[in-house]
């Protein structure tokens, strides 16, 4: 009979994981804040409307046009910015703007 193969032992990490940037760890380390008003979405938005992207995302403050609306648990819209870039945004983070601005 051949020799029995030993199981490989991998020791556990000794350093705790670093917190991700932009997270608030003042309370519990794994605390999470959820905007429950996002579940309802924003009413009155239709495909073709001009909107301003709110929040703190990549295209925050830019004006865009709604190309598609997905009505799910958290309603979202696919928008195209004036610079030609596309993005999916929660409808709660969209603010209607006039056609002339």
Can you tell me the CATH topology of one domain? SH3 type barrels
Tell me the fraction of residues in β-strands, as a range. 25-35%
> Helix count, per DSSP?
0
The rounded distance between the terminal residues' Cα atoms is: 82 Å
CATH architecture of one domain: Roll
Number of strands: 5
Indicate the overall shape: elongated
Largest sheet: 5 strands, antiparallel
- The Cα radius of gyration reads 23 Å
Report the oligomer: single chain
N-to-C order of helices and strands: EEEEE
Give the helix proportion (percent range): under 10%
Which structural class do you get from the secondary structure elements? mainly beta
Strand order of the largest sheet: 4-3-2-1-5
Question: Class of one domain, according to the CATH hierarchy?
Answer: Mainly Beta
Describe the structure.
The chain has 101 residues and is mainly beta. It has a domain at 49-96: Roll (SH3 type barrels). Helices cover 0% and strands 26% of the residues. It has no helices and five strands. It has strands at residues 50-53, 63-70, 76-81, 86-90, 94-96. The protein has a five-stranded antiparallel β-sheet with strand order 4-3-2-1-5, with no helix packed on it. β2 and β3 (76-81) form a beta hairpin. The radius of gyration is 23 Å and the shape is elongated.
């Amino acid at each position: 009979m051949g020799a029995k193969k030993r199981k490989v032992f991998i020791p556990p990490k000794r350093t705790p994981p670093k917190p991700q940037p932009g997270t608030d760890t003042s309370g519990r380390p794994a605390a999470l804040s959820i905007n429950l008003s996002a579940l309802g979405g924003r009413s009155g938005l239709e495909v073709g409307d001009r909107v301003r992207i709110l929040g703190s995302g990549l295209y925050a403050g830019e004006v865009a046009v709604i190309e598609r609306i997905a009505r799910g648990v958290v309603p979202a819209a696919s928008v195209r910015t004036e610079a030609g870039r596309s993005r999916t945004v929660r409808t709660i983070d969209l603010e209607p703007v006039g056609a002339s601005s």
